[in-house]
Amino acid sequence: MRANREGGILDAFAKLPSAIAELVEEFSSTPVVGDLNAGLTQYSFWLLIAAVVMFVVFFAFTKKQKVVPEGFFVNGVEWVIEYVQDDIAKGVVGDNWKKHFPFLASLFFFILINNFIGLIPGMKPGTGAIGCTAALALVSFVYFLYFGIKKHGFFGYFKSLAPAGVAFPMNVFVWVIELFSLCLRLITLAVRLFCNMFAGHVVMGSFAIMATLFAQPMLEHFTAMNAVGALPSVAWVLILLVIYVVELIVAFVQAYVFTVLEAVYIQIAEADAH
Question: pTM for this one?
Fold first, then answer.
């Protein structure tokens, strides 16, 4: 009996690499409409769904909003809005926060809703694809670049990348480094969000697969031996639940980090000296 149980456990571990490979393959972009060259992938589809959900949330919030907030939904949305306003817009951008607050709040909610969608089994959020996070990063990059150029002028903005008071030729080297750092922001915004969300989905999927593989013999044919062999599945499920809670926090944190970084870049772009 012990030998059979150990054999079942070894069989489960033997199937694990191929199951993980299939899991990772499932995260590849597949077209829902058209093809990959000119079509709508599952990530783009859920990106649009997230946009619709965001508009519905804002619409419902404005309809239910009162002088004294009532209900979990209204109080919850208002708390998040005030948090973005006070902690990110006012706290980071500074005096010009009002004109940037709508963009920052929309960015935060859009990423947050996408991240939450990714925690629902079977759904593929936009933040789980590098193409979608790159598009978000590009919009954010163009946004702060536009306001920097608007305030300082095109040549004035790029000239100001090199701090005043640095003598030639060192100022040229500093300018090149700062220009490279400016371009790198686009990449880091996209990659940071994608990697964190994608890694979380793979980890959750891996533990779900392990729980299924160990429980599969018992589900197919219930015996005392198969029941004992399925006991590790309990541990995998418990770990999966803990990871799920952690991913809920990560979903909020990643939306916060992306929005804070955008606020920092806006503040730097509009600063008198940067």
Answer: 0.82
